[in-house]
């Protein structure tokens, strides 16, 4: 019997040189995706997309502290995709004047994320004097904790509303909530898609969800009116929401374009499954994939 001239070493060389045929040559490069905190809405929705679009095995998750870090990683070429808030992108472009922001493109417009304003329940002190806040407009000259993209949201709302409070930035959600618990801040502002598990875990005997009593004409263009619905905290609470996006840079490399457009097409085609399959995040029911006020990746 005539033996093959391809020994193991030669076969390995053939594969490395792309001589092993189309199946061996068509290997997608790995792209990193900034999602946000562990167990958060973005991280869960990223996992849901991976479960539905199984061809997305070339994506790797990178958890971050939120939209600000995710945008920084995207602009510095540390990741290729990022889940972010629209107001963070607008602030980077319009307020910071960062020219790199104009190279960011929307791969998938997603859901609206609600502003959660959380404070300790008011208490009565000496002579029955009430201490604490019950709504956004009472935050003047007080301290508000935030982290990630919520820091940007807090500053935008402060500027647009005219309610002059101090924004204290924290590295993580846990650090901000700890500051609220021990009285270092008067409230915590968090942008997160409801229902958020960590919000549901808060003790309603200790904390309140506060209404954002801001006139819509002051925040139009950035935010939409919304309501927070957490039964344990009582009646629905008036608030605002901001669009969330899965964004990428304006890549022109054919291989990257093929990968990204295939992922985009799969998500659009599988939206009904994302909305109806058990175990998917409830925020998929708010997704329409319609234009979101930022240039699309095409």
TrEMBL record:
InterPro entries: TRAP_TAXI (IPR011852). PANTHER family: SLL1037 PROTEIN. The keyword Signal applies. Residues 1-25 form the signal peptide. This is Transporter substrate-binding domain-containing protein. Pfam families: NMT1_3 (PF16868). Keywords: Signal.
């Amino acid at each position: 019997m005539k033996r093959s001239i391809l020994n193991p070493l030669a076969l390995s060389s053939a594969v490395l040189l792309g001589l092993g045929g189309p199946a061996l040559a068509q290997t997608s490069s790995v792209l990193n995706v900034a999602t946000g905190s562990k167990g958060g809405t973005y991280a869960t929705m990223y996992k849901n997309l991976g479960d539905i679009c199984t061809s997305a095995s070339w994506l790797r998750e990178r958890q971050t502290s939120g939209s600000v870090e995710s945008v920084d990683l995207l602009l510095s070429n540390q990741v290729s995709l990022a889940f972010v808030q629209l107001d963070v992108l607008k602030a980077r472009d319009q307020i910071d004047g960062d020219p790199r922001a104009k190279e960011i493109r929307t791969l998938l417009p997603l859901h609206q994320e609600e502003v959660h304003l959380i404070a300790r329940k008011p208490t009565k002190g000496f002579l029955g004097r009430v201490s604490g806040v019950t709504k956004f407009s009472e935050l003047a000259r007080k301290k508000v904790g935030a982290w990630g993209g919520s820091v940007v949201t807090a500053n935008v709302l402060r500027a647009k509303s005219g309610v002059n409070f101090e924004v204290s930035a924290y590295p993580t959600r846990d650090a901000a909530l700890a500051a609220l618990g021990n009285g270092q801040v008067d409230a915590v502002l968090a942008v997160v898609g409801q229902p958020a598990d960590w919000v549901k875990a808060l003790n309603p005997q200790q904390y309140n969800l506060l209404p954002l009593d801001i006139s819509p004409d002051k925040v139009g263009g950035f935010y939409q009116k919304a309501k927070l619905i957490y039964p344990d905290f009582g009646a629905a609470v008036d608030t605002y929401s901001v669009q969330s996006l899965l964004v990428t840079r304006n890549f022109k490399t054919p291989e990257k374009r093929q990968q990204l457009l295939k992922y985009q097409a799969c998500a659009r085609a599988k939206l009904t499954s994302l909305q109806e399959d058990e175990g998917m995040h409830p925020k998929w029911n708010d997704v329409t994939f319609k234009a979101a006020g930022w240039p699309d990746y095409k």
